[in-house]
């Protein structure tokens, strides 16, 4: 078996960011300044880091970013009022509410309050439904990033058998929908599935989005499989903090043709695709504003 290829998510993300940066210039030349609003409720340190990274990356691409911080004890009404204001503000193209929300706020209610055309996380039911119908909609960033890594690595995905491990609304389900749209044969397995190793061994592509460190072993893979490891698990190994994926990297490398490392695989793609989605949202809003005007030269 030839050596495994490491799928370089940092390099792929840099390519996406370069595309976005060029596209932002075209928007600006057409008098539109793409803008992303990021809303954080509470003081969770991990969420604060995620928000800071998103804002920094937006600014690097030339996307205007607006940050809103609400205290953890704030009532849902205050958050919903802020979302209403941002929905009505034509200068704001994307709205992202950082998850998780404090337990007293109904996450579903909040996500449904975001205008679907500004829903850069792709979590609104209208976008989820559109994705399952195979329409072009705003799509969750992590699975969209995984798809791009797969297409960069494999080219055409038609007819390939993909096994997706995990059925969350954020990763597993939209990943399955995107792979179906890309003409894969898709099997979704989850915590109640049986015969996981046997099912994985049938796969040309394995996407692991589980949250269980090193669950997927090398002998679960067929020779030449392409493996996308979405998992981010923090372990304390011998007193040292370590990030590992849902795939047992060392044993997987003995079977896989290509694999994403953790860190440096899927992670960097998530923020890059958020930037892409912000431009897609801006495009949606400006193409529907005034159909009497000639189409703007905004890249598709
Ligand atoms: P989740 O907890 O919402 O869902 C996990 C899924 O795994 C569930 O559907 C569950 O049925 C399934 N599962 C649990 N145990 C299983 C088992 N033993 N066998 C098979 N399936 C099992 O998690 P999520 O939000 O989908 O995230 C999954 C992982 O991906 C986490 O480690 C998370 O940190 C990571 N993640 C990474 C990024 C990124 O940008 N790289 C983004 C989102 C999530």
Automatic annotation (TrEMBL):
Instruction: List the Gene3D superfamilies.
Output: Leucine Dehydrogenase, chain A, domain 1, NAD(P)-binding Rossmann-like Domain
**For the Tetrahydrofolate dehydrogenase/cyclohydrolase NAD(P)-binding domain, which residue ranges apply?**
140-285
Report the leader peptide range.
none
EC nos: 1.5.1.5, 3.5.4.9
Q: Which residues form the Tetrahydrofolate dehydrogenase/cyclohydrolase catalytic domain?
A: 7-121
Give the UniProt keywords, A-Z. Answer: Amino-acid biosynthesis, Histidine biosynthesis, Hydrolase, Methionine biosynthesis, Multifunctional enzyme, NADP, One-carbon metabolism, Oxidoreductase, Purine biosynthesis
The protein's annotated catalytic reaction(s) are: (6R)-5,10-methenyltetrahydrofolate + H2O = (6R)-10-formyltetrahydrofolate + H(+); (6R)-5,10-methylene-5,6,7,8-tetrahydrofolate + NADP(+) = (6R)-5,10-methenyltetrahydrofolate + NADPH
Pathway(s) annotated for this protein in UniProt: One-carbon metabolism; tetrahydrofolate interconversion
Which residues bind NADP(+) per the record? Answer: 166-168, 232
Stretches of the chain forming a coiled coil according to its record: none
Give the UniProt family note.
Belongs to the tetrahydrofolate dehydrogenase/cyclohydrolase family.
NCBIfam families attached to this UniProt entry: PRK10792.1 (NF008058), PRK14188.1 (NF010785), PRK14194.1 (NF010790)
What is the role of the protein in this entry? Catalyzes the oxidation of 5,10-methylenetetrahydrofolate to 5,10-methenyltetrahydrofolate and then the hydrolysis of 5,10-methenyltetrahydrofolate to 10-formyltetrahydrofolate.
Subunit and partners? Homodimer.
Q: What is this protein called?
A: Bifunctional protein FolD
Q: What is the scientific name of the source organism?
A: Pseudomonas taiwanensis
Q: Which gene encodes it?
A: folD
């Amino acid at each position: 078996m030839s050596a495994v290829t490491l799928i370089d998510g940092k390099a792929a993300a840099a390519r996406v960011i370069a595309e976005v940066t060029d596209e932002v210039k075209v928007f600006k030349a057409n008098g539109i300044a793409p803008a992303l609003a990021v809303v954080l409720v509470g003081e969770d340190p991990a969420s604060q880091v995620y928000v800071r990274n998103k804002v920094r990356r937006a600014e690097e691409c030339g996307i205007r970013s607006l940050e809103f911080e609400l205290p953890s004890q704030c009532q849902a009404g205050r958050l919903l009022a802020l979302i209403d204001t941002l929905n009505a503000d034509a200068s704001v193209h994307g709205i992202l509410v950082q998850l998780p929300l404090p337990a007293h706020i109904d996450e579903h209610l909040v996500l449904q309050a975001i205008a679907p055309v500004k829903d850069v996380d792709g979590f609104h039911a209208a976008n989820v439904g559109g994705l399952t119908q195979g329409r072009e909609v705003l799509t969750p960033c992590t699975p969209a990033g995984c798809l791009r890594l797969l297409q960069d690595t494999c080219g055409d995905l038609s007819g390939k058998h993909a096994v997706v491990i995990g059925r969350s609304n954020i990763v597993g389900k939209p990943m399955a929908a995107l792979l179906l749209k890309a003409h894969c044969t898709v099997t979704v397995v989850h915590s109640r599935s049986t015969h996981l190793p046997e099912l994985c061994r049938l796969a040309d592509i394995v996407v692991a989005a589980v949250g269980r460190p090193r669950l997927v072993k090398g002998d679960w893979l067929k020779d030449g499989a392409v493996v996308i490891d979405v998992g981010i698990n923090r372990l304390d190994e011998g007193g040292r903090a370590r990030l590992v994926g849902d795939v047992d990297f060392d044993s997987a490398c003995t079977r896989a043709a290509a694999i994403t490392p953790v860190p440096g695989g899927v992670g960097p793609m998530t923020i890059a695709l958020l930037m892409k989605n912000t431009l897609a949202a801006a495009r949606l809003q400006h193409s529907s504003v005034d159909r009497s005007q000639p189409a703007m030269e905004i890249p598709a």
